[in-house]
Design a protein that fits this description.
This protein is of the alpha/beta class. It has two domains: about 45 residues, no CATH class; about 210 residues, Rossmann fold (3-Layer(aba) Sandwich). It is built from eleven helices and 13 strands.
Length: about 350
C-alpha cells in the first residue's frame, strides 16, 4: 500500500473558484481554523496559512472494522432497510450529489456508464438525469442494496450486477464513464479498485470517485479509523496517478450547513476525477489480493468487530445532526461561525 509521503512531481495544490486562486504548498494539509488570510479588496490571490502537517503516522492499510467485504455485506444487510432515510439526508444530499457529478462531464445521453458500489441507486438517480438508464450499469456486492435500487422507477432500464469493485466483471476499454460514490471506504485495497477503474474505461474516458475525507479533530479521527477507510486528499490523488490517470482533479463537497469539513470529516467529502490516457490495462502492477473473501470468519471476532463498527457508524450519524443544530444556533457568516467554502483542487 502507499506511504504517506508527498506526491512525486506535485509541488503545490491550488483551490480555485472563478478568477480567484487559493494557493497552498502540498506539504501542508490542515487548513486554518479561522479561514483564509485577508488581502485588500480586489486581490485575486489568497494564501492559506497551514497549521499542521499534511500526513500523520496512520497507515492506510491498517485494519478497520467495516473495511472488509464480508463484514460490509452484513453491515449493509441491515443498513439497506433505512439507508436512504438515515445516511443520505445528513451525508449525501441531492445538491451534493449533483455537484460531485459535475466533474464527470455526463454531457451525452448515449454515454456508457458503470456505477460501481451503486448501492440503493441514489447516485445513479443523478447519473440518469444526463444519461439514458439503458446505458447505465449498477454494480454492488450487496443484493439487499441492489433490491432497493431496482424499486426506483427511473432506474428500471438500468442493468444490475452483483460484483466486486476490485475485480470488475467488465471487459477492458468498455465504458465511457466510471462512477463510484460511497464505496471506496469498504475496499481492502483502494489502489486495486482504482486500477480496475482505469482498465474498464475507454481511452479518454473519465473516472469519478466520490468518497470520505480524513478528519482533523482527534475524536472524529478515532472513530474514522475504527470504522472504515477515510482517505486523505493526497492519498486519492496518488492512487489515481499510480493507476495511470492524467488530469487528476479533486473537488471538495459537503452539505451547505456543514462547516469545517476537515474537522470532523465527511462520509462524502470529495469528488476525484481522472482521464484514461492510453487504451488497455493500467500500467500499474500489483500482487495478489490482500483479502480472501472465501476464508472462514470467526463468528465471535465478527460479532465484536460488527458491534464496534456500528458504534463508530452511530457517531458519524450523529455528527451531521450536531453540525445542523450548530448552524441553526450560529448561522454561517456570524461572529464565531467558521466560513469554509468547498472549492476545486486542481493537480497539474
Amino acid at each position: 500500500m502507499m506511504s504517506s509521503s508527498l506526491l512525486n512531481g506535485a509541488e503545490s495544490l491550488k483551490l480555485t473558484t472563478g478568477s480567484q486562486i487559493f494557493g497552498s504548498e502540498l506539504q501542508f494539509s490542515c487548513f486554518p481554523k479561522k479561514g483564509f488570510v485577508n488581502y485588500p479588496k480586489g486581490s485575486k490571490i489568497l494564501t492559506l496559512t497551514p497549521k499542521c502537517s499534511l500526513s500523520s503516522s496512520r497507515p492506510v492499510s491498517q485494519p478497520r472494522f467495516i473495511q472488509h467485504k464480508q463484514e460490509a455485506f452484513w453491515f449493509y444487510r441491515f443498513l439497506s432497510i433505512v439507508y436512504d432515510h438515515v445516511i443520505n439526508p445528513g451525508h449525501w444530499t441531492e445538491d451534493m450529489r449533483d455537484e460531485a457529478l459535475k466533474p464527470a462531464e455526463l454531457y451525452s445521453r448515449n454515454l456508457k456508464v458503470v456505477d460501481v458500489g451503486g448501492g440503493t441507486g441514489f447516485t445513479t438517480l443523478g447519473i440518469v438525469k444526463h444519461v439514458d438508464a439503458k446505458n447505465v450499469t449498477i454494480l454492488d456486492q450487496s443484493p439487499h442494496q441492489l433490491a432497493k435500487a431496482k424499486q426506483k422507477e427511473p432506474l428500471k432500464e438500468c442493468t444490475f450486477i452483483e460484483g466486486d469493485a476490485e475485480d470488475l466483471p467488465f471487459p477492458t476499454d468498455y465504458a465511457d464513464r466510471y462512477i463510484s460514490a460511497g464505496s471506496i471506504e469498504y475496499w481492502p485495497d483502494p489502489q486495486r479498485g482504482i486500477k480496475e477503474a482505469y482498465r474498464v474505461l475507454r481511452i479518454g474516458g473519465k473516472a469519478c470517485l466520490i468518497g470520505p475525507v480524513y478528519p482533523t479533530f482527534w475524536l472524529s479521527r478515532f472513530f474514522a479509523d475504527v470504522w472504515m477507510l477515510f482517505p486523505k486528499e493526497e492519498e486519492y490523488i496518488e492512487w489515481f496517478k499510480k493507476a495511470g490517470f492524467k488530469d487528476v482533479e479533486l473537488k471538495r463537497i459537503g452539505p451547505k450547513w456543514y462547516r469545517g469539513v476537515r474537522r470532523h470529516g465527511l462520509i462524502m467529502g470529495c469528488s476525484v476525477t481522472g482521464v484514461k490516457r492510453k487504451s488497455g490495462d493500467s500500467p500499474l502492477q500489483l500482487g495478489p489480493k490482500q483479502e480472501d473473501v472465501k476464508k472462514p470468519v470467526n463468528p465471535f471476532v465478527f460479532l465484536m468487530r460488527f458491534i464496534l463498527g456500528a458504534m463508530a457508524a452511530t457517531y458519524y450519524v450523529l455528527v451531521p445532526i450536531y453540525m445542523w443544530i450548530k448552524d441553526q444556533i450560529v448561522p454561517k457568516g456570524q461572529k464565531g461561525g467558521l466560513t469554509l467554502q468547498f472549492k476545486n483542487l486542481y493537480i497539474s
